[in-house]
């Protein structure tokens, strides 16, 4: 896959239109079987360029960790929000993702005056916003948000692996890999799993499978 570096073109255009604090917003973990969906909101400093920003999915773990440190040092503001597996089951993954993004935006201090959001629009906020299709590959602020969210979610899943190593969270971070599906077949769903997510490979399992 060709790596496309995100640029500041959209942010620069917004500044010319009069916006001062522009937050990029993105989430990670929508397609996982376990763990929270996590969102980040990042307001980059236009005077402190961060080279190498790209969609977190196109970066190695070491690149994400390095950029996370740079982003959190140089950004004007950054914050994260999440929705738990129980909230995902109650709301559905789409609405839980939007809620995680709303929480991330609400936690920013100072508040932004414009949101650039990967693909969606965030409900329940008062500032202007724009959904950007493919935003994590096009927009530097959104790419930065994707990196922050990915690094912190990965750290959370590695911490969960230390608590319960049966499922291999440190390796797959909750995604539906063959190893994860095999562990689910052997151990059943845990409280960290999204009970409403039932992969086809597991639908033949009895609902009475052990849950611990």
CATH superfamily: Ribonuclease H-like superfamily/Ribonuclease H
Order of strands side by side in the largest beta sheet? 3-2-1-4-5
The mean pLDDT is 93
Count of extended strands: 5
Which secondary structure elements does this structure contain, and how are they paired or packed?
Layout: H1 9-16, E1 22-28, E2 37-43, H2 61-74, E3 77-83, H3 85-91, H4 93-106, E4 114-118, E5 128-132, H5 135-138, H6 140-163, H7 169-172, H8 178-187
Parallel strand pairs: 1-4, 4-5
Antiparallel strand pairs: 1-2, 2-3
Helix pairs in contact: 2-6, 3-4
Structure write-up:
β1 and β2 form a beta hairpin. Strands 3-2-1-4-5 form a five-stranded mixed sheet. α2 packs across α6 (140-163) and α3 packs across α4. The protein has helices at 9-16, 61-74, 85-91, 93-106, 135-138, 140-163, 169-172, 178-187; strands spanning 22-28, 37-43, 77-83, 114-118, 128-132. The chain contains eight helices and five strands, in the order αββαβααββαααα. Mean pLDDT is 93; it is low at 205-212. The protein has one domain (9-161): 2-Layer Sandwich (Nucleotidyltransferase, domain 5), CATH 3.30.420.10. The chain is an alpha/beta fold.
In short:
40% of the residues lie in helices and 15% in strands. The protein is an alpha/beta fold and 212 residues long.
Defining key terms:
Nucleotidyltransferase, domain 5; 8 helices; single chain; disordered C terminus; 212 residues; alpha/beta
